[in-house]
């Protein structure tokens, strides 16, 4: 494991791959990107760009929901899961319900006054993808829609920088999900979207990445359309594309990978096996991108090797990709799960498995064969 300065690979800079190949990279397994704003490990948890349940920034921006129970900023950067869950259940939801009813009443009254005898019809719902984490990867259309919303329902992986774009008079409502706890069920989210749209509000549903790639956006769109609500989807850069670009990994590459496959690492009923059948994914000419796969990775990696994927297949796991707190673990498939465990990666982490990973200028296992892939293929 090694600590290195952040290498300037971003959407706003041009990276010379051939020059990168000349850097003498020692064979490390973990790269920790850092900036001046995150110079110490102790600040990492408190300066997270993601809106965790204990985010002070989120409470400050959503304070309209907490007039009944004023939150006390946590004394430590990361409260225990038990304390966090207790606060959510006893304070968060209890104080939201009356405020939500009040807001619905205000919106309905405003709508009636504006109609003046006509039928205004319901408001619109926008499913907006906010990309993998870097706010500069938002589309112009996404920014315009975010700034025009009356109410925004947002997930855990929407960064505070994105929430700063919300208009001052708009309302924010957290509906995020974490492993083992959902602040709102999917059915409750459906009903919230429907209720506010029927009241005439312009409702924006903010999702990390792209709303239609493992974001359950299709379910929300189908439900609302069946209720006669117009839904518009604003695509976002999915984590696979954004993070691969940040690391200089082409998801497909002539002569190396002829296809790419997006997979979910979710397990059945909380088990250790991923939902998909590993033998169908063990193709050495296909790049595998696994979303939410930390918990099932040991089983997945073993099954892929059992079904013929070479044990030295390059792989990378990226925690909080495209953000200042990005951490990256490179390893061959046979050592991958062990290296990730040693590095202590946490969600959100994206996993990429395939020969294209060694095309990254950050791939540490430099061999004569791997260093010539870009030049000869």
UniProtKB/TrEMBL annotation:
It is an enzyme of class 2 (transferase). Belongs to the precorrin methyltransferase family. NCBIfam families: cobA_cysG_Cterm, PRK06136.1. Gene3D superfamilies: Cobalt-precorrin-4 Transmethylase, Domain 1 (3.40.1010.10), Methyltransferase, Cobalt-precorrin-4 Transmethylase, Domain 2 (3.30.950.10). Keywords: Methyltransferase, Porphyrin biosynthesis, S-adenosyl-L-methionine, Transferase. This is uroporphyrinogen-III C-methyltransferase. Its EC number is 2.1.1.107. InterPro entries: 4pyrrol_Mease (IPR000878), 4pyrrol_Methylase_sf (IPR035996), 4pyrrole_Mease_sub1 (IPR014777), 4pyrrole_Mease_sub2 (IPR014776), CobA/CysG_C (IPR006366), Siro_Cobalamin_biosynth (IPR050161), Uropor_MeTrfase_CS (IPR003043). It comes from Camelina sativa. It comes from the Eukaryota. Residues 125-336 form the Tetrapyrrole methylase domain. The gene is LOC104719753.
């Amino acid at each position: 494991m090694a600590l290195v300065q952040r290498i300037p690979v971003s959407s706003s800079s041009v990276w010379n791959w051939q020059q990168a190949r000349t850097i003498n990279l020692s064979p490390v397994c973990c790269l920790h990107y850092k900036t001046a704003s995150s110079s110490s490990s102790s600040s990492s948890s408190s300066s997270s760009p993601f809106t965790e349940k204990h985010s002070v920034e989120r409470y400050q921006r959503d304070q309209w929901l907490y007039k009944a129970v004023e939150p006390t900023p946590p004394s430590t950067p990361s409260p225990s899961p038990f304390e966090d869950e207790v606060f959510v259940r006893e304070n968060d939801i209890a104080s939201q319900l009356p405020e939500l009813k009040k807001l619905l009443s205000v919106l309905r009254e405003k709508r009636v006054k504006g109609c003046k005898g006509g039928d205004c019809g319901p408001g619109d719902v926008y499913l907006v993808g906010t990309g993998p984490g870097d706010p500069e990867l938002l589309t112009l259309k996404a920014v315009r829609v975010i700034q025009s919303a009356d109410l925004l329902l947002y997930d855990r992986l929407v960064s505070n920088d994105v929430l700063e774009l919300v208009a001052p008079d708009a309302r924010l409502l957290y509906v995020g999900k974490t492993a083992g706890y959902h602040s709102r069920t999917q059915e409750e989210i459906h009903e919230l979207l429907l209720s506010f749209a029927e009241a005439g509000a312009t409702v924006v549903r903010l999702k990390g990445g792209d709303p239609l790639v493992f974001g359950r956006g299709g379910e929300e769109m189908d439900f609302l359309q069946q209720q006669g609500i117009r839904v518009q989807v604003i695509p976002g850069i999915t984590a696979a594309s954004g993070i691969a670009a940040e690391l200089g990994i082409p998801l497909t590459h002539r002569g190396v990978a002829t296809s790419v496959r997006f997979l979910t690492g979710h397990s059945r009923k909380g088990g250790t096996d991923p939902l998909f059948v590993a033998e169908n994914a063990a193709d050495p000419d296909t790049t595998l991108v696994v979303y939410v796969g930390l918990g099932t990775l040991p089983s997945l990696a073993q099954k892929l090797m059992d079904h013929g994927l070479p044990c030295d297949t390059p792989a990378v796991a990226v925690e909080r990709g495209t953000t200042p707190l990005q951490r990256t673990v490179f390893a061959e498939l046979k050592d991958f799960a062990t290296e990730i465990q040693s590095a202590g990666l946490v969600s959100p982490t994206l996993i990429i498995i395939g020969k294209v990973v060694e095309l990254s200028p950050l791939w540490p296992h430099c061999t004569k064969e791997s260093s010539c892939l870009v030049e000869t293929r």
